[in-house]
Write a structure and sequence with these properties.
The protein is α/β, with parallel strands linked by helices and 254 residues long. Helix content is 56%, strand content 15%. The chain has an 8-stranded parallel β-barrel with strand order 1-2-3-4-5-6-7-8, surrounded by 7 helices. Strand 7, helix 9 (168-177) and strand 8 form a beta-alpha-beta unit.
Length: 254
């Protein structure tokens, strides 16, 4: 399962792609773009220079407006995937755009039937929203599982992108349900690596290592103090001794 960030923040994307090395795509929407403080086109182009597979959303509602808007967004960068809404107009526009080779992400999917419609018009990705279903006491992960099963049964190649993920459990359950992609906010991705036992284990290993290092240093110092200076002994034993001349020779010299 691929991991995407649901953000338009360049710093977060740099961290996920370059520092962590786990992010292979980004999903955006008009709200996230507005938070970034840049116009839509500029920010999407900047994101596309960092990572591939960047979903950028259309804001039009009618087919005749969605099609030219989708073409314009697709022209920004080869990494762009155009997001259209799960409506009849959105589906009609998706079919035209997909027929022109534009990669389409049909978003705001909440039923298996909607996912099947997205696949029928040639969507590259369908985005079921897990958290929003949970908010109304429905099972968002069950929807992911059912869409995956239906697609496999029908031989569909449209990718299932699990969206609206609120916590690490949503992420792991999306993987177990068979999602192709999971997109999440930066804070959720940041928490994936966290577990109290991992933190305790790292701290313990470090403490043990430091204690062992101190012990080795102490032992080395004791050995140095106890070890005789062999070089000194060598010099002592190798000092040349004065040779006494026989008395006769000494007298002659005198």
């Amino acid at each position: 399962m691929q991991l995407f960030l649901d953000t338009a923040d360049l710093e977060e994307i740099h961290t996920g792609v370059e520092q962590w090395g786990v992010v292979s795509g980004v999903t955006t929407n008009p709200t996230l773009i507005a938070k970034a403080g840049q116009d839509h086109e500029t920010q999407v182009k900047r994101i596309c220079e960092i990572v591939g597979n960047v979903s950028a959303e259309c804001v039009s509602e009618k087919k005749d407006d969605l099609i030219p808007e989708g073409r314009r967004i697709a022209s920004w960068h080869e990494n762009v995937i155009v997001k259209v809404p799960m409506t009849w107009d959105g589906l009609a526009a998706a079919k035209v755009l997909a027929g022109e080779g534009v990669r389409i992400n049909v978003t705001l999917c909440f039923t298996v039937n909607q996912a099947l419609l997205a696949a029928t018009v040639g969507a590259y990705i369908v985005s079921p929203f897990v958290g929003r279903l949970d908010d109304i006491n429905q099972d968002g992960i069950r929807l992911i599982r059912d869409i995956v099963a239906a697609y496999r049964e029908q031989g569909v190649t449209t990718k299932v992108l699990s969206a609206s993920l609120r916590n690490p459990i949503h992420v792991q359950d999306s993987a177990l349900a068979g999602a192709d992609i999971a997109t999440m906010p930066f804070k959720v991705m940041e928490s994936l690596v966290t577990h109290p036992l991992t933190d305790q284990g790292v701290a313990r290993f470090l403490a043990d290592y430091e204690r062992a290092g101190a012990g080795r240093a102490s032992a080395a110092g004791a050995d140095a103090r106890a070890k005789p200076d062999l070089r000194s002994d060598y010099r002592t034993t190798q000092e040349p001794k004065a040779v006494e001349a026989p008395q006769g020779q000494a007298a002659a010299k005198a």
